[in-house]
Amino acid sequence: MVLSPGGPADTPYGYEVFAQRFATWGFVVAIVAFNGNTADERGKEFPEILDWFEKHNADSGSALKGKIDAKKYVACGHSRGGWAAIVAATTEKRFAYCLALAPAAPVNLPGDKRPPVCIVSGDSEPADVASAKTTFKLFEKPKFQITVRGVPHMLHKDPKTPIVCAYATAFLNYKVRGDAHSKKFLEAQTADVSVVSEE
What we know:
By secondary structure, the protein is of the alpha/beta class. It contains 6 helices and 7 strands; from the N terminus they run E-H-E-H-E-H-E-E-H-E-H-H-E. It has helices at residues 16-24, 39-58, 80-91, 126-138, 161-176, 180-186; strands spanning 2-4, 30-31, 73-78, 95-101, 117-122, 143-148, 193-198. Strand 3 (73-78), helix 3 and strand 4 (95-101) form a beta-alpha-beta unit.
C-alpha cells in the first residue's frame, strides 16, 4: 500500500496510526512525503513507490523479500493525498484498490480504471460530506462509503480514529484479502457509522 498524507505532505509523520493498524493485518505500507506536490503530481508519483516495492520484493537481502503481492496494490491517502490516491488508482494499471480518507473533492476521474474503492470520512464538516458523495458517484461498483459521525476532516487525530481505522481495515480484509467475514463488519450500521455499499 502507498499512503499519501494530507495537505502538503511534506512529512510522513502523523499517519502511523493507519499504517500500524494495516500492518498488524499483514499489509506492507509506505507512508510517503511528497513535498508539497499537487494531488495530480503526487498521483503520478505513486508508481515510483510500486517500483521500489517490486525491487525489494525480489531482493534476497531485503526484509520485504517475497512478502508483497504485486496483484493487490492499494492506493491510499487523506485529503489532498486522498485525491492523489484516486488519481493513482484510476491511471496506474498496477493499483487494484483505492482507499480514500476524507478525499479532496474531484470534478471527474482522470483515468479509465475503476478499481474497488472505499471512501471513509466524517460528517462534522460539510465539505467532507459533499466530497465523499461526489467521489462515490464517480466510481463504479464495487464501492463503499463510510461516514463516521462527529469526526472532523483531520480524522487521524480524533477520539473516533480507531473507528475510522477499523472500517478501513475491514475494506482491506474483505476486498484485498478476500475475507468474507470482514464484509459483515464493513457493512455494519451503528450509532456512530453510516454505510453505503454497492457491489
